[in-house]
Amino acid sequence: VVLVVDFGAQYAQLIARRVREARVYSEIVPSTMPVAEMLAKNPKAIILSGGPSSVYAEGAPRLDRALFEAGVPVFGMCYGFQLMATTLGGTVDNTGAREYGRTPLHVSKAGSTLFEGTPVEQSVWMSHGDACSAAPEGFTVTASTDVVPVAAFENDEKKLYGVQYHPEVLHSTHGQQILEHFLYRGAGIEPSWTTGNVIEEQVAAIRAQVGGKRAICGLSGGVDSAVAAALVQKAIGSQLTCVYVDHGLMRKGETEQVEKDFVAATGANLKVVDAQERFLDALAGVSDPETKRKIIGREFIRVFEQAQLEILQEEGPEVAFLVQGTLYPDIVESGGGTGTANIKSHHNVGGLPDDIEFELVEPLRQLFKDEVRMVGQELGLPEEIVQRQPFPGPGLGIRIVGEVTKDRLDLLREADAIAREELTAAGLDREIWQCPVVLLADVRSVGVQGDGRTYGHPIVLRPVSSEDAMTADWSRLPYEVLAKISTRITNEVADVNRVVLDVTSKPPGTIEWE
Ligand code: XMP
């Protein structure tokens, strides 16, 4: 493992991803972890991330000198670089020599371990106030900028390296190469980490954890739960039971995808709970979006727990594990703990006995989203599941503006299926983040179809592009594609006589309409 020591800010996650892109396994540890504990993990190399502090600020994170004397190769970036410099006797001054953003870097030692084979002039991404003016003894200065005399240094004998800039961001044109030079040349690591290794490793870990007991996994139809279930299935086979709650709010074909394709690909035991009526009953007469969301969430938990209870009654108390599709970013953001947490299932609803505790199995807790997709692909899950765009938990229930009824759901399912089909046919799936299709059930407008007047509902198309769903812009789809979707929906879906396009960014609009 390569450890990425996190000095705050968002850089550590990005560095960890870049190390994995170099096919070397990496993990993030907090800078407060004692050096002895870091070394006990037997790291092949350690990377010190950037961070928001000045090395001279009171309470700024420090590092025990022992880290640099353990014989483990270390690469400091930005704050990590300055910390390496000051800890080993170099000089970092608050000179007022600030550099932010794209900066020209002058490589003075082109044959150095980090810079070999890269241009003597390259563009790097800087973000610092303090600057290193003298490298520690035994170090060679390998690069500078117009402002900073020591922008990179190395001590090849001790395997210590540092750069003032951020090689992990794409604006640093040779950043990935320099990181790889550190890993392969500096630290002598063989690039061997692949999704195949992850699967092997996780299968062994799951078997060790679960032993001869049984596990339950809730499937939502989304990528994470499907891949987690497939991985656990591979490890323990028939000891796993998957539960899928069919709330009737899924899109066309999605329930079948789970029922048929997922089972075909994995051979999992699947318990499908048909709760469509129950959800429709609970939603009857409700138009308020927040109330709808609460009802759907509440019913979902009740149905899922009822299914758990039934499995427990059928199979006995050896059902002790609950599989969850938790990803690495969730773990890092919640404090980065190791080991497994014990959770108590919500025993206040659904009538689970008080003393039942599930231990969590979280086979994706080391992975980033794109890695989860690669693992899913390698496990043979269908493309439609692995590459699925985001879809809200409350499903089509929050894409009908107005009351949710069976007829309206069927109508929206048809319209949505047409839009998806045409977007896929036009090759736009990767370009758009998602495209909610919304039924304005309480609005009617006049139209003419055939020889007659119609009085039907509008369908809204809401295609957006986004990086993370926090902000979004409306997608400029080709007119021909929009025209085709509009023609097909108005022709093929009864009671819809108008298709409109939502041209609002987020903010001010949210992606979903409710
Ligand atoms: P909004 O509408 O808030 O949506 O801009 C942002 C992203 O979140 C998805 N979304 C949900 N996902 N449960 C989910 O799992 C929900 O209740 C939920 N509501 C919205 C939405 O599809 C978009 O990707």
Automatic annotation (TrEMBL):
<keyword id="KW-0658">Purine biosynthesis</keyword>
<keyword id="KW-0315">Glutamine amidotransferase</keyword>
<comment type="subunit">
    <text>Homodimer.</text>
</comment>
<dbReference type="InterPro" id="IPR022310">
    <property type="entry name" value="NAD/GMP_synthase"/>
</dbReference>
<dbReference type="InterPro" id="IPR029062">
    <property type="entry name" value="Class_I_gatase-like"/>
</dbReference>
<feature type="active site">
    <location>
        <position position="168"/>
    </location>
</feature>
<comment type="pathway">
    <text>Purine metabolism; GMP biosynthesis; GMP from XMP (L-Gln route): step 1/1.</text>
</comment>
<dbReference type="Pfam" id="PF00117">
    <property type="entry name" value="GATase"/>
</dbReference>
<dbReference type="InterPro" id="IPR014729">
    <property type="entry name" value="Rossmann-like_a/b/a_fold"/>
</dbReference>
<feature type="active site">
    <location>
        <position position="166"/>
    </location>
</feature>
<dbReference type="Pfam" id="PF02540">
    <property type="entry name" value="NAD_synthase"/>
</dbReference>
<keyword id="KW-0547">Nucleotide-binding</keyword>
<dbReference type="Pfam" id="PF00958">
    <property type="entry name" value="GMP_synt_C"/>
</dbReference>
<keyword id="KW-0332">GMP biosynthesis</keyword>
<feature type="binding site">
    <location>
        <begin position="220"/>
        <end position="226"/>
    </location>
    <ligand>
        <name>ATP</name>
    </ligand>
</feature>
<keyword id="KW-0067">ATP-binding</keyword>
<feature type="domain" description="GMPS ATP-PPase">
    <location>
        <begin position="193"/>
        <end position="388"/>
    </location>
</feature>
<feature type="active site" description="Nucleophile">
    <location>
        <position position="78"/>
    </location>
</feature>
<dbReference type="GO" id="GO:0003922">
    <property type="term" value="F:GMP synthase (glutamine-hydrolyzing) activity"/>
</dbReference>
<dbReference type="InterPro" id="IPR022955">
    <property type="entry name" value="GMP_synthase"/>
</dbReference>
<keyword id="KW-0436">Ligase</keyword>
<dbReference type="InterPro" id="IPR001674">
    <property type="entry name" value="GMP_synth_C"/>
</dbReference>
<comment type="function">
    <text>Catalyzes the synthesis of GMP from XMP.</text>
</comment>
<dbReference type="InterPro" id="IPR017926">
    <property type="entry name" value="GATASE"/>
</dbReference>
<dbReference type="InterPro" id="IPR004739">
    <property type="entry name" value="GMP_synth_GATase"/>
</dbReference>
<protein>
    <recommendedName>
        <fullName>GMP synthase [glutamine-hydrolyzing]</fullName>
        <ecNumber>6.3.5.2</ecNumber>
    </recommendedName>
</protein>
<dbReference type="InterPro" id="IPR025777">
    <property type="entry name" value="GMPS_ATP_PPase_dom"/>
</dbReference>
